[in-house]
């Protein structure tokens, strides 16, 4: 309980913005969910690697799905 709030507080602590968050239920485990979170940041920023390392303390599984360069208009 409270893992999502702890993870969101950690993201805020390091000063990153969440662009989106999507929740999906885990079919084999009623009342449990996994989340997709889209953050502003880049792996070249040491704060991102620190954030990801600390996030592992609040999750049972953590996967990085991509690291993309944002094109400014």
Number of strands: 2
Order of helices and strands: HEEH
Discrete helix count: 2
The major sheet is characterized as: 2 strands, antiparallel
**Rg, Cα atoms, Å:** 13 Å
Distance between the termini: 41 Å
Averaged pLDDT: 88
* Uncertain runs: none
Q: How big a fraction of the residues is strand?
A: 15-25%
Helix content: 25-40%
Strand order of the largest sheet: 1-2
Descriptive notes:
The protein is an alpha+beta fold and 73 residues long. Helix content is 29%, strand content 21%. It is built from 2 helices and 2 strands; from the N terminus they run αββα.
Give keywords:
73 residues, alpha+beta, 2 strands
In a few lines, what is going on in this structure?
By secondary structure, the protein is an alpha+beta fold. It contains 2 helices and 2 strands, in the order αββα.
How are the SSEs placed, and which strands pair?
Elements: H1 3-13, E1 18-25, E2 33-39, H2 46-55
Antiparallel strand pairs: 1-2
């Amino acid at each position: 309980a409270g893992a999502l709030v702890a993870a969101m507080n950690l993201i805020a602590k390091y000063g990153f913005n969440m662009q989106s968050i999507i929740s999906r239920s885990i079919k084999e485990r009623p009342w449990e969910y996994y989340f997709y979170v889209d953050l502003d940041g880049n792996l070249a920023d040491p704060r991102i690697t620190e954030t990801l390392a600390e996030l592992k303390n609040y999750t049972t599984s953590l996967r990085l799905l991509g690291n993309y360069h944002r094109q400014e208009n």
